[in-house]
Amino acid sequence: MTPAALDPTDPEGAIKATVDRVSNWGRWGDDDVRGTMNYLDADVRRAAAGLVRTGESFSLSQRFDGDGPQKGWRRRTNPVHTMLDTGTDAVAGIQGFPHGIGGADDVIAMPLQCSTQWDGLGHIFDRGRAWNGRPADQVVTSLGDGVTGIETVAEVIAGRGVLLDVGRAVGEDGELPDGFAITEEHLRATIAAQGPSSEIRRGDIVLVRTGQLTRVRRGLAAGDGWGDYAGGAAPGLSFTTADWLHGSEIAAIATDTWGFEVRPNEFDVAFQPLHQVAIPHIGLFLGEMWDLDALAEACASDGRYDVWLTAAPLPITGAVGSPVNPIAVR
């Protein structure tokens, strides 16, 4: 479903024209490292705190374990969890602690973007430039992201979350098919269908449910595995939503899919062109592989789609992304 206004033969031209319209370079000063998180200020956060009514909470994270969706693309693997000390060691008396005390310890090894996660501002470049126009080689080196590392926003990602359940609003049986390009019109139709609580405001964290994870879970239950969830065809944001993402002044946006934007991408030859605009030019934080199903059920039951949301990344110095366990409270 390629929007009529998009020429699928000219990704470079489309990217350049879009960047000319939506770039935020210099908007918060030449030294800025937080991009659109600047919209999520203390006033926005204080107003969002009043959204808690019932106290019902939802984790929006998938699990971090060896049964996850990764298949090795770009060396992304599922987490490897290893126990260092166990109850077996304690019972065998080999831990060497005094007066009968025992314990367990463990370690995990994983790519930082193997499950529910944030893309940081050092994750994607455009023609060798990173967020705010900096040369990419002066931002991310073998030592990590020394400028816009994910730790720079560790304390700010908490505020008003708004669920846009596009799967329910415009899809069939609550799901969008793989390859479905979500346009600005679809987003606006979803907001209209859901009502005033889904009005998008400056500084919001927008959650877009496509229903793909719901469909994948049915396959898992049937023994079919993850399929191509990690990197294959998927519903997602159309490239043409770049202007909406910029003009709405949201702080961040997350989806229940692996790659945020529609896959296959809408150009004949392209790879994640919306990332190429959104991260290095708009300065927008993208969340992927979020589990929005339980929250969506609760929102549909009472028609209230805005929540208090805290989604702090792990403050891993110099990281270009981070695992996250987002918590939505209604």
TrEMBL record:
InterPro entries according to UniProt: KFase/CYL, KFase_sf
Source species, domain of life: Bacteria
GO biological process, any: L-tryptophan catabolic process to kynurenine
GO molecular function: arylformamidase activity
Stored Pfam families: Cyclase (PF04199)
Protein name: Putative cyclase
Organism: Mumia flava
